Amino acid sequence: MAFNTREQLANISVVAHETARLAQAFRSWPQSYWGRPAYCPGWTAADAVAHIATGGDFYAQVLTSGRSGAPTLPWGTSHPAEFRAARQAAVNKLLDGGPVTLIEGFEQGGARLQAVLESLQEADLAKVALHPRGLIPIGAWVGMRLLELSVHARG
User: Domain with 52 in it: what CATH number?
Assistant: First the structure.
């Protein structure tokens, strides 16, 4: 996958802006909105927010390990099935807390990811991070996060 390193570094501020914009939008949702069906089949708006909230932690962990030269899956997992179970447990914990917990989880995961993104140097972008589906250049993860935020922005 080809990407322009300067463009990806420039997009890091866009990730921050979109994360803040979405958190503000989530705060404005009425209680009834959280349970409405999402565009992802079988998901509610709350499920979509929990997904992108845990995604912030997921990205922060894999980018950190990838940059170190030892790409690993997040949450101490060693294979995709274990990763999926750990992520689902994190999603369930957020869902159990309701909208306030979901928003806080989204903001906290986003802040952890943003700190990692802002620390990246151009040379880091060619290194790889481990996704459950394989190794992906770190530079591609910036655009992946923007895509994920836009896809799940409305729940």
Answer: 1.20.120.450
